Amino acid sequence: MTLTTDRARRLRTTGFVLEFITLGWNVVGVVVLAALALRSSSTALAGFGLDSLIEIGASLVVVWELSGSGERRRRIAERAIGVAFVLLAVYLLVQSAIALATAHRPDGSVGGIIWTAVTAVLMFALAGLKARTGRELDNPVLRAEGRVTLVDGILAVAVLLGVLLDTVLGWWWADAVAGLVIVFYAAREALHLLRSPRA
Q1: I need a surface site. Which of 70, 125, 137, 144 has the fewest CB within 10 A?
Q2: SS3 (DSSP) at 138
Q3: pLDDT at residue 1, rounded to an integer
Q4: Beta carbons of 57 and 7 less than 8 angstroms apart
């Protein structure tokens, strides 16, 4: 189906709105998660906060693309995001391993439970809207970022479960295991971005 100029403009505007919502939530999330992680000494919440910081960069790449910016600048940005994911994976792998080896027991975090639950719902909704908008606009970058947002929602669920099990049942190791889930995701995303021909 061929898009009219007006329809394409409206879809592009929708894409911008979705990315700015994602950006706004993640900017607030970095601050909220840092405070919650410091208060509870939770590896999973700290990792999710760092992931939110990286997702801010991913959203900025899409905003650049929707603005019609150059391919070279997008490739540089994607490579930088890939390197950031590598650093996140290494950091969380070390922290989770130390937490498990020393039987580190983080304090429970009701705030962490609430934040990650709301984040999961919002990210799943945004992912669906980005996928639909990207499909209608025939924009592969927006569709790809929609998949990243979907995974962000899945990560929020993993962190939610880890913090919930620690807070409610006292399963201290669940927090570190949730951190390892983020390690797997970060390593996978880094590999994809750094091996991609576009990167």
Answers
A1: 70
A2: coil
A3: 55
A4: no
| Residue tagged 């910081």 (tokens) | 53
What's the pLDDT tens digit per position in 109-144?
899 999 999 999 999 999 999 999 988 888 777 787
- CA-based end-to-end distance of the chain: 30
| H runs (alpha helix) in the chain | 5-40, 43-66, 71-101, 110-137, 140-164, 173-195
Topology adopted by domain 5-195: Alpha-lytic protease prodomain-like (1.20.1510)
- State pTM to two decimals: 0.80
Phi, psi of 198 (to 5 degrees): -70, -30
Domain boundaries defined on the chain = 5-195
Show the low-confidence residues of the chain (pLDDT under 70).
1-2, 68-71, 73-74, 77, 196-199
**Which residue carries 């898009």 as its tokens?**
3
